[in-house]
Amino acid sequence: MSVIKGKDRIEIIPGDITKIPADAIGNAANSSLLGGGGVDGAIHRAGGPEILAACQRIRSRQGGCPTGEAVITTAGKLPAKYVIHTVGPVWRGGAQDEPRMLADCYRNSLALAVAHGVGTIAFPNISTGVYRFPKALAAEIALRTVTDFLAKDPRIKKVIFVCFDRENYELYLQISAELFKE
Ligand code: AR6
Q: Catalytic site residue 40?
């Protein structure tokens, strides 16, 4: 019997996550859930006001989203079905539990994806823009956390890391080659 391990279900591509027709795309949001710049701004702009309206309903229910946690909404006009909004940690030097909080973003997003029957999910490089998380460390955490999750849970069929900037794309290729070498 062949066991499909985590790494076989991971893809790394350059590009814009708003264009990806996955079941779900991740958003690097902030705890207000009211939108912002970077990938968050791009998702709200391209997906239209339905996404913000859904975020506002979540806010009135639970008052925002704490760092490391995730919430799910419609993807509005995007080709994806859902947006999973997660709040990455702001990098403050690394001694404030930032690595664990970043891993929590990926784990909690994947758990929410599974709960909604998502088969394919695309992630941006959470926290590596405005929140200044060092890109190489963030890539290693993202790849390790997702691979570990996939190895234990067969329900997610594919995770696509969508790298908007060339530096992240090259780091993901390089770090995945190191992590996954036989
Ligand atoms: N598709 C994929 N990735 C993108 C796109 C895109 N269209 N646009 C940017 N990126 P950032 P953060 C990449 O700053 O660091 C927002 O204002 C970008 O190259 O979007 O988690 C929120 O509201 C970078 O690698 O998110 C929060 O306040 C990555 O997305 C705050 O920024 C993350 O950069 C969150 O900061």
A: yes
